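Lecture notes, unit on protein representations.

Consider one protein chain, 494 amino acids long.
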Amino acid sequence: MANKKIGKFPFTKGIYKDMYRNRLWTMRQYSGFSSVSESNKRYLSLLDSGVTGLSIAFDLPTQIGYDSNDDMAFGEIGKSGVPISTPEDMESLFDNINLEKVSLSMTINSTAPILLAFYISLAKKRGYSLKKLRGTLQNDILKEYIARGTYIFPIKSSLRLTTDIFEYCQEHLPNWNSISVSGYHIRESGSTAIQELAFTFANAITYLDAAKKEKIDIEQLTRQISFFFNSHRNFFEEIAKFRAARQIWAHIVRDRFNIDNIKSQLCRFHVQTGGSTLTAQQIDNNSVRTTLQSLAAVLGGAQSIHTNSKDEALNLPSEENALSALRMQQIIAYESGVPEFVDPIGDSSLIDNMTKDIVEKVNKKIDEMLSKGGVKKLIENGEIQNEISESSIKFQNDLDSEKAILVGVNKFRNKEVAHKKEKQTIKEDDRETIIDHFKSSRDEKNVTNALALLESKAGSSENLMPYIIECSDNQCTLGEITYSLKKIFGEYSE
């Protein structure tokens, strides 16, 4: 029997029959500071201001498996997000936040199983039901090799950890998206809209193939997969891109993997406005860019949206500008009238033709990639990375020749200098002292035993999530767990 709430295959008009009429999109704001305590304050402020989901930014050492007191972390602590080295850090991060009442997104990949383990340990400590936790773990390691570079282990071992998370979440966290396959970072690296979708869905196919090989229920898995897309410069192209994405994914699930369950065919996605479209020159222009990009995401049928702050090209967003960015979404939601209509722009011949064109080009590119041996092989020979680089260079050449216009940068420039960076007054924690104190209060024998058990299991075919959680429960640090896995898996090198 068809679900009356779900839209019609292939869901070009939207995954839900009534779209935003019954429920608005989740409004997330991506945030994380050099201080755990200051990050917590910002999250509480955002929740008080009407945010309906939190999105956590982690710093570079956390992303690549180093504790804040590691020499390798020097100079990078807290620069790109919040540092999380211990289960205690995770506890402080969510102080006074009810984990059962907030949807959480964690932008983390190589160390995803460790951060998820810390979160699970916290939930158990507070007496929460794991089955009630809602959120998304990015866990998209393939795009790290393609676009971002925050990988640790060889591809094979990384995929093993990814599928371990799939299996664990199926059993214990049914309301948790165990992966968010990201086109956002691919687009930020310089790809076109076609490449963004093609590479993202080719990655998703790779994950499903890997899960199938491990005897994981892929019908259930497809209901725990979400996507993360970029809303970029070209207003109509982006709307058509989002419509095309739903159509492409529905056919992949039904036709390639023979899954008829309608809920499995839904392409649920988060959208963030284009960070690479922001400029340091004439920063007020960024608010206009972000508003148009947010509107494109809404007209395109996104399930959750993050709007960048106008000052993010300069520094960490101020609380004032972060609030202003959230208000953009709220004005679209409550004042524009757009959510009253299902697919309000979809009967446009322009949009319909653009959608059809994108679908055809993306499918052709996916088929070409798979015929060449698939994503893993193309990453290893550098083909995907080179293609993105070529697109990025072409766009820069277009800017240099003014074939493409960036207002305030290559046209309509003011005589005054660009805005100066304003250092945010963020109170930084004494990370070394905090970690030293943490280690002095734990049972070192339990730590040693938990890490030894993890190492022994890493050399087997067992799911590693229970053993990583045990490490977390016994107060092991992120760096210690990562090092234990490195000893067995080794490290990836290009």
